[in-house]
């Protein structure tokens, strides 16, 4: 890689009091994230309304994640070899075309659930290509010492989009049907692609052999870089543990507990989901405010782990039958307590994920950036379905409150060990 050209490119992208390139980058993400959240919130309802079953909803959720996980490693190679801006633009336009195609089929009255599932595979594959490219591009648009602050801004706006999307989606679906939902999402991807086209970005071509052998060599180079970099390796393991243990709590334990042990309405469950997203938004903003220019990751990680583990412990206590007996399983007091703890829970996870992402970006050379993030994403997010499977299997045989409490104790031990190990690795750099 020509480092002189790279530095000149970065100075060009970052100069001036207002970073127009970052604003365009952020605007594209906000628009497409809002459109995606509009559609994803409505799809389970639409699938049921269209004659699908719970199994169909499950297949749709599986297809939303698994194709991206499978393509991640090779997407990282492509993201380091090819122009990241072009990858982002092309994948956004392909998504726009596929989703607007669904809108046409729906408008013509020939929409089928099989078409929806096929398009979801396409969207997931495009997202798998898009994510490593966009993660690799951001460090070239902003100053290195401001990565945490800008990652915080991206995470905050994404949380706001996810918070806003379901409201818009519900209104569109109830008033106009699924066709306009598809139109809104398709147009959002078109606007995102146009916004990305305007970004001033110069691709630095790397010399690498073409063909399958060259692709595999690049992939193995990325794997070796992750394995040989002690800090990135431990951060990847840190994320794997977090995603494996924590994310299924929201997708498995919470809905089961809500349905089996509480007597609130489905609307209350919707309120809880909104509060969880609001917690992520608050956490993202706080990370940027408190640690926007932090040069070490120990402070945000310790604070995030403390918030996360304390909220996990209180949540596990709230699951115990004695707590339900004291507060009442349908009382306003219990709902406020549960919502507050879940809000803390979600905020704490942002104190971990944002700094970790920023420090991986700082520790990775540009020529490895997309490959590293594709591998990190595959490792961390790959833990989610296996974590859900683990919880589901255990809960068939054990009480939910004891499962949660034991998990919390194990997480306290695991995160303490990981933080000590990360602190040593970081001090050796």
Could you describe the 3D structure shown?
The chain folds into 2 domains: 3-206, Growth Hormone, Chain: A (Up-down Bundle); 223-427, MFS general substrate transporter like domains (Growth Hormone, Chain: A, Up-down Bundle), CATH 1.20.1250. It is an all-alpha fold and 429 residues long. The model is unreliable at 1-12 (pLDDT under 50). The chain is built from 16 helices and no strands. The longest helix has 32 residues, at 230-261.
Summarize the helices and strands and which ones pair or pack.
Blueprint lengths: L2 H12 L5 H30 L4 H28 L2 H25 L4 H25 L9 H30 L1 H21 L12 H18 L1 H32 L4 H26 L6 H22 L1 H7 L4 H32 L5 H13 L1 H13 L4 H28 L2
